[in-house]
């Protein structure tokens, strides 16, 4: 069954920025069908039912939502998600590689690096490669879009800037993974340019989410982190083509407009 709707896949969408983006996209258009990627189907279904039973100040849900089991660190899961999308919709119009981790438990550097890169880099790369044939069948006017949710912490250019607001945040392995994601995005921008695809990395800013666990969430709440709805709104604008000018630039598309140097 081919679909007339715009089919949007978001990874790691049962929580935080991903889940807020599911809601914001659904509010934006009845023509969107959002595939909520979750490594646990149970968590994904729970997130949908909570979203559906909550009243939303920004308006009702209009676009449809369904769960896709997707663990980006598991090649089998990636390929079965691709097959499921192909069998049901025949195409994909927007891919948002949002799943990401920070390893917060104490462990040796090699373990930390492997786990961090497995999800934040390898997963995004392998999933994009797997769904490329579906993106080739996109019917979206002005699309398709590939959006990699990165971070200003992955900007090499600002790492040694004494004025950088987050210069005191260490997170070496996380920073390295987002820098690698940025290079992947630059390669995707180059590789897909002749097809007219829109590709970017995106900086969501410092937000309230579960990225650094329950304690980290509390720290975020008490230290002025912005609501995850803010980057969700910016991601909707990207999907709607309102940030195409920034996507044409070289750099990380910033939540607040413009780009940050790679
Ligand atoms: N929050 C910030 O301040 C901030 C700033 C800059 C960039 N970011 C980026 O924003 C993205 C979203 O993070 P968030 O802040 O919204 O954190 P979050 O609330 O922890 O959400 C991360 C999501 O990724 C999922 N995930 C983790 N490993 C996965 C895997 N192997 N396969 C599939 N899904 C997986 C998690 O699922 P489970 O629930 O199953 O763990 C969760 O749904 C990340 O890429 C992060 O690096 C966040």
Walkthrough of the structure:
- Belongs to the short-chain dehydrogenases/reductases (SDR) family.
- GO terms for molecular function: oxidoreductase activity.
- This is Short chain dehydrogenase.
- InterPro entries: Fungal_SecMetab_SDRs, NAD(P)-bd_dom_sf, SDR_fam.
- It holds the Pfam family adh_short.
- With 262 residues, the protein is of the alpha/beta class.
- It has one domain: NAD(P)-binding Rossmann-like Domain (Rossmann fold, 3-Layer(aba) Sandwich), CATH 3.40.50.
- The protein is built from 9 helices and 8 strands.
- The protein has helices at residues 16-28, 41-52, 75-89, 109-135, 156-159, 172-192, 213-222, 229-239, 244-247; strands spanning 6-10, 32-38, 64-69, 94-97, 145-149, 198-203, 252-254, 259-260.
- The protein has an 8-stranded mixed sheet with strand order 3-2-1-4-5-6-7-8, sandwiched between helices.
- Helix 1 packs across helix 8, helix 3 runs parallel beside helix 4 and helix 4 (109-135) packs parallel to helix 6 (172-192).
- The longest helix has 27 residues, at 109-135.
- The mean pLDDT is 96.
- NADP nicotinamide-adenine-dinucleotide phosphate (NAP) binds at residues 11-12, 14-18, 39-40, 43, 70-73, 98-101, 119, 123, 149, 151, 204, 206-207, 209-211, 228.
Can you tag this structure with a few keywords?
single chain, about 260 residues, alpha/beta, 8 strands, globular, binds NADP nicotinamide-adenine-dinucleotide phosphate
Quick summary:
The protein is an alpha/beta fold and 262 residues long. The chain has nine helices and eight strands.
